[in-house]
């Protein structure tokens, strides 16, 4: 008998190759000024505030401007920081009522690739397939913006 719930198996997985070193790609995740430059699913929805205590057990908060005047906030805690190979953190949307808050986990692995770095992102433990699909679209756009940031810098 399988004791896993649907929530345990609802996850997304993305891969992206960047023409940059693992250190450069990893470091884009560890500085507030870098995150503000690329974090967010589209040019219309972008990070405007980032607070982070970038250490294992440290917390972060990111506020996104959704273009409608209201900020959307996400918060979490760093679980694993292993530069330049792995970053793992929790992810919780703050606008939800405490009863509806769902803590998910994001794991980002950085491996060497003939063309630079392969980023492998897994986002785990979604409450619904709708949320999983919404986040998959968001992460695709975010990784597009990360590519632009790395190429520009």
Can you give a write-up of this model?
The structure is a single chain. The protein is of the alpha+beta class and 153 residues long. It has a single domain, classed as 2-Layer Sandwich (Alpha-D-Glucose-1,6-Bisphosphate, Chain A, domain 4), CATH 3.30.530. Helix content is 27%, strand content 39%. A hairpin with a 3-residue loop joins β4 (71-82) and β5 (86-93). The longest helix has 24 residues, at 129-152. The mean pLDDT is 92.
Layout of secondary structure:
Layout: H1 6-9, E1 12-18, H2 22-27, H3 32-38, E2 46-52, E3 59-65, E4 71-82, E5 86-93, E6 104-113, E7 116-124, H4 129-152
Antiparallel strand pairs: 1-7, 2-3, 3-4, 4-5, 5-6, 6-7
Highlighted features:
single chain, 153 residues, alpha+beta, 7-stranded antiparallel sheet, 4 helices
Order of helices and strands: HEHHEEEEEEH
Q: Give the end-to-end Cα distance, rounded to a whole number of Å.
A: 51 Å
The CATH architecture can be given as 2-Layer Sandwich
CATH class: Alpha Beta
* Mean pLDDT over all positions: 92
Numbering strands along the chain, what is their spatial order in the largest sheet?
1-7-6-5-4-3-2
Shape: globular
The protein's oligomeric status is single chain
> Looking at this structure, what is the CATH superfamily?
START domain
Tally of alpha and pi helices? 4
The number of domains is 1
**Strand share of the residues?**
35-45%
């Amino acid at each position: 008998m399988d004791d896993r719930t649907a929530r345990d198996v609802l996850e997304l997985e993305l891969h992206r190759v960047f023409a940059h070193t693992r250190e450069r790609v990893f470091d884009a995740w560890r500085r507030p000024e870098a995150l503000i430059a690329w974090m967010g699913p589209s040019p219309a929805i972008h990070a405007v505030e980032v607070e982070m205590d970038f250490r294992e057990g440290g917390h972060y908060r990111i506020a996104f401007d959704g273009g409608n005047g209201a900020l959307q906030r996400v918060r979490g805690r760093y679980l694993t920081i292993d530069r330049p190979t792995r970053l793992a953190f929790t992810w919780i949307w703050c606008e939800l009522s405490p009863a509806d808050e769902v803590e998910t986990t994001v794991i980002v692995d950085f491996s060497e690739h003939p063309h630079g770095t392969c980023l492998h992102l897994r986002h785990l433990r979604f409450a619904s397939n709708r949320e999983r699909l919404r986040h998959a679209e968001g992460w695709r756009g975010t990784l597009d913006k990360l590519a632009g940031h790395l190429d520009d810098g």
